[in-house]
Amino acid sequence: MPYRSIKHALLLGCLSLLINTHLFACEGAATDSNSPCAKSENQTIASLAKYQQQYPDITYQELRQLLPTGKVLLVDANRPETYASGHIPGAISFNDKANLRTHLKYPKNMTVVVYCGGSHCIAWHSAADWAAAEGFQNIRHFSAGLRGWKLEGGEVIAMNSKTLQ
């Protein structure tokens, strides 16, 4: 199955899980469109759609081609311990604010790519919002995340500088 199909299946699965989890929590609630459960479900779907539209996806192949150019700020939005255990080469931890501040002098039209664990993860929202608030204009989301990077055979770097597969 082509990677793009897997990614889309994971995204749809994630959305389905969010909706089903919400529906389970709201089971037995009024089905009125003004009910808190209906409003919450609509807000969740709208929020996901907003982020996907505002911050377009970048594929594994596109990211692999962009990284060697040095014309990208790659931001890992995973937890510090996840970043330390392995991240995409060249990525800066979103949790390392001092290091992030050193990159604020980059041209604001530079591509910023944010990612987290995979298609199910929404930690990237904060990193994308941060980049936008700092004035960066070309923000992309690597929705496959660290998991997808590894599935494609991409190397990861641990804090001890060893390359992991």
UniProtKB/TrEMBL annotation:
Residues 1-25 form the signal peptide. Residues 68-158 form the Rhodanese domain. It comes from the Bacteria. SMART domains: RHOD. Gene3D superfamilies: Rhodanese-like domain. The keyword Transport does not apply. The keyword Translocase does not apply. Keywords: Signal. This is Rhodanese domain-containing protein. It comes from Kistimonas scapharcae.
